Amino acid sequence: MNCPEVMELMQRHLDEDLDQKEEAELAAHLQGCLDCRLMLERLQELSDELAQLPKVLPPFSLVDSILPQLDAIDRQASGQPEALAALGHIDRTETGDSTVLPFDKSRRERRAGSPISWKVAGGVVAAGLIIGLFAFNVNQPSTKNADMAPELAQPKAKATEQRSAAAAQQQADDQMSIQDQRGDDRKQDYYENASASGGAAVDAPGASSDAGPELVEPQAVKPQASLHFSADAPASEPSPPGTALRSSAGQQPAESADGAPAAGGTGAGVAGGGEAGMAGALAAPAPAAGGAAASGGGAASTAPAADAIQGLAPSAPGDSAAPNAADAPQTKAGSSKLMLGPAAIPVLLASPSGAYVAAIEDRRVVIRQAGSQELVFASERVWGEGAALSLAAWSQDDQLTYRVENGDRTLAFVIDVKAHTEAEAAK
Amino acid sequence: MVAPELVKAAQAGDRDALITLLREIEAHVYRTAYYILGSEQDAMDASQEALIRIYTKIGSYEEKALFKTWVQRIVTNICIDKFRKMKPTVSIDEHEMVFAASHNVEEEIVTGYLAKDIREAIDKLPAHHRSVVVLRYLQDFSYHEIAESLNLPLNTVKSYLFRARQQLQTLLQDYQKGGVRG
User: Fold this and answer.
1) Domain boundary among B85, B113, B128
2) What is the ipTM of this complex?
3) Global pTM?
């Protein structure tokens, strides 16, 4: 028997497809052929490694995410006209570019493979730097990052920022793609998270049992750690970077994305705090963050930066967002519009009674207790990438109206918190 | 993996049974898609599409095939379609840049190399070879089950699998020589 013939035996040996006689033939050949022995060794090693590839799991329940589509299919089958429309609205239900909320603990617990948290992280970092940069220009703060800010306060700062933000994000994505492979066996975590009980699933990531995940943990945590900065620097709006947050209550036109007008708003927002510049110490900016920060100057925000920024950071203690949500007079803003951009923004809307806070998480609307952050209601409607969700208003009796813009259609839904029901609003 | 009674109930029009069944298979569907397509996002898209297709086509499943191979046939078909439509999006230069950067980051985590190299090597295989490897190792399918899932002759399955392993072995050996692996 020659070596090429033995190759097939070796291959089938890996799949335990040989009978006794063939095994004996293989063994006899290997006895006298070093090359084949080494080859089998390598193939066996490869095969073992393939068998140990992480049994990846989806970051959230896929079935839950397609339920609206399945309903639409059923309605279509039974001949109701709105079925098709509903299908169109949820044509893409996926994780990318979705909304992340400050206290969405489930995000953090979730597999590190999700690109979103990194986009958010990049955005948070970006916003921080913008704030720091403007604060430096406006206030001449004697802060720790004084030596860093001048460097960025160049005429070309904006271009540089964009690049560095992009680079930061890419690096983040790269890291994540590595971790994708390792996100083994966290089934437990996923399913808890998938059940939308963001508040409940706080158990340590270390709960995962296989060898892969633990090794990855330190890495997953590292980049996030950089977001814990500015523990006591006052800053403006907790709102988030990388996207345009418009407040429709008629405050300043915050959507200006080009930074210049935003400078005024940000300056005002942070002027009170001499150390505000520090917020930017670790950040890498994105242009749109200027818009977000500007809205802080006019609209709503008294929240201390510690809460604001930690709340945004995927790795931050979720509780820190609680006071933030409760204190910020966001209800005055009337309605906040969320544009789903490359990065996500949290949008919160507190009920008039102050008992509940509505938020957009994982592309759907959830309602939490204002104090405890306990999940009260999670919408079953999970929207696709193309849909823009906006929290419209609370009624006096704790009913939340929210809107979804999808293509050229706008839908409105009403959630009755007390009754735990949700329905499409009558037109 | 899925109880035959559940499949029967689902086929008979029991919607709850069908949803339960989808929940039972979603991880398997996702895993295949993830390793064939190589990204979480594409895998999510493909598996959602596959689950919807299974939902609508459950009536067409016939018991002469194993349910799990029927499911994998649906998901691999979707993935291979998607795979063909995907154009290579990064240039060689970009790819190398990314590669180098991620290695720097990973340096401390020695064991991180292994699965990553294998993943990269798998990504270099042609679609059908890759599918065979995924079904063999991620779904633990036999030659016969792979043949049924991919609608390929048994001998073709073997030749794809053997060739794929040889190629992977060569690629990984190259990594080793390049000093990439510990």
Assistant:
1) B85
2) 0.83
3) 0.44
